[in-house]
Amino acid sequence: MKALVIDDARCVRSVSRKILTGLGYEVSEAKNGQEALTYLKAHPDVALAVIDWNMPVMNGLQLVQAVHADPELSAVRMMMVTTEIEMAQMARALEAGAHEYLMKPFTKSAMRAKLEIMGLPSDPEVAA
Question: Most CB atoms closer than 10 Å: which of 29, 51, 101, 108?
Fold first, then answer.
């Protein structure tokens, strides 16, 4: 199963990649929302987008809105992963079309729990 990690911080992309790879996902990366949107349109088999909120060019909320509005991308499950801690911000992301919300810093078990809530595989045997 394919996942796309979108974050402007290389270290966060690396940590997310390591966790998701360990959970059986084939992971690609993007540095901002615009790069991610272009990638998603070219790769319709991506099942999961792990999205940072605060990025240059196109932020995570704008990306969630764009993906949610595009019927060709309706199969992409979106998890907002951010340091935004206000409940209003979480609500905005979910209202915009995000399927889940995960706070940074996060652990492998927290990521696994969110994937399970989203109905996505969190076991290497299932995801492969």
Answer: 51
Q: Which residues of 46-68 are buried (b: 16+ CB within 10 A; e: fewer)?
A: bbbbbbbbebeebbbbbbbbbbb
Number of compact structural domains in the chain: 1
pTM of the model: 0.91
Percent helix / strand / coil, the chain, rounded to 5? 45, 20, 35
Model confidence pLDDT, tens digit, residues 53-66: 989 999 999 999 99
Tokens of 110: 């927290």
**Range of the structural domain that residue 50 is part of:** 2-127
Phi-psi region of 115 (alpha: psi -120 to 50; beta: other; left: phi over 0): alpha
The pair of three-digit structure tokens given for residue 12, joined into one six-digit string: 């966060």
Q: Tokens representing 11?
A: 């270290």
Helix (H, G, I), strand (E, B) or coil at 79: strand
